[in-house]
Each structure stands twice: as C-alpha cells, then as structure tokens.
Amino acid sequence: MFIRKKDGFVAEKAIVLPEQIIKQCEHNTFISNLHVTDIGFYPRAAFHYRRRDHGSPQNILIYCVDGEGWAQIDSQKVFIAQGQYLILPQNTKHVYGASPNKPWSIFWMHFKGNTSSILTDILKKDFNNFLGTVPYDEHRIKIFDQIYSTLETGYSEGNLSFVSILAQHYLASFCYPYLFTQHKQSE
After folding, report:
1. Helix (H, G, I), strand (E, B) or coil at 176
2. Which of 14, 91, 150, 186 is the most exposed place for a label (fewest CB within 10 A)?
3. What is the rounded CA–CA span in Å between residue 98 and residue 92?
4. Three-state secondary-structure class, residue 171
C-alpha cells in the first residue's frame, strides 16, 4: 500500500480563500483580472500526491525549489526538478506527486481571472510539457512571502487588490525570467 498525502507536511504553509471571498474577487472590476484562490509552501513533502480527474477550476503554478517530483497532464508525463515550475491550466486533467527518494519542496499558487488564461499560455508557450525552468532568485520568494503574509492579515478589498498586483509580478517572474533577473546582470 502506497502512502499518499495531499497536505499535512511538517512546517507547511497554506491558505485557501473562502468561497464567498473568491466570489467577491470575481465581481470586483480590478481584482477579477487576476486573483489568488489558494497559496502555500510544502517543504520536503514526502508522499505528496494529488489527482484531479477533471482538473482544477483554477490554474495552478507549482515551483520546485528542492528535491524532485512528477506530473501527468492528460497523457503527458513530466519530471520536475529543482529550479523548474509546472503550470496546470484550469480544467485540465492531472495527477502529480513528490519523488519517493527525493521529495520536493514546492511553492504553489492557484489563480483565476479574466487574464489568467493569457498568463498560462505565456507560461506554456516556449516550454514542452507544461514545464519551465527559471534561475533561483530570492526576490521571487520574497514576492511570494508578501502575497502570503498579506492574505494572513485578512481579505479586505485593499489586501485583495494588493495581492492581485503582487500575483501578476510573481507570475511575470516565471513568464519573463530573463527580464526579472536582468537587474542583477547590470550591477
């Protein structure tokens, strides 16, 4: 018998926005373009496994910062290593999990909105199998942490608007990693 866990990892962080808050985001002209619905970090997530036969109603970005994992999207199987990200477009059948020998540490975010399909298309554009590689950058992690800590303080319209802007910045760091890290090359 295989052990499988969708969550419950030591030192994990996770926020799932309540459905009523997500509905508010969908009806707010500004926030409806891009809003976070779930966000978290799973360190050394041994036995991590998720299966969604009908996909997720949101797009999902998984960023692996340590260890390894795998995913099957429709009929394509991919392996994910440190420094790679996986984009799962909404309503796309998928299953994924951590490597049994070297479980991954992942930052993950579910997002929706009027522009979210454009972002997922950019994230998939030049990469095979929904997988991309980005150089590690502490600034990217700080943006993620700022999104997370803002949501921890509540779901006011100001917080949700700020998170929407930060989420665009965070996703842009994956869409255009050469521009995101360009400032370091000029120093």
Report:
1. coil
2. 186
3. 19
4. helix
Concatenating the DSSP letter of every residue in 32-47 gives GGSEEEEEEEETT-TT
pLDDT digits (tens, 9 = 90+) for 35-56: 999 999 999 988 898 999 999 9
Q: Are strands 105-112 and 94-98 parallel, antiparallel or unpaired?
A: unpaired
Structure tokens at 67: 């260890």
Q: Can you tell me whether residue 122 is helix, strand or coil?
A: helix
Encoded amino acid at 4, one letter:
R
| Rounded distance between C-alpha atoms, residue 9 and residue 41, angstroms | 10
The one-letter code for the residue type at 81 is A
Please give the torsion angle defined by the CA atoms of residues 66, 120, 22 and 84, in that order, rounded to the nearest 10 degrees: 0
Tokens 């370091």 identify what position?
184
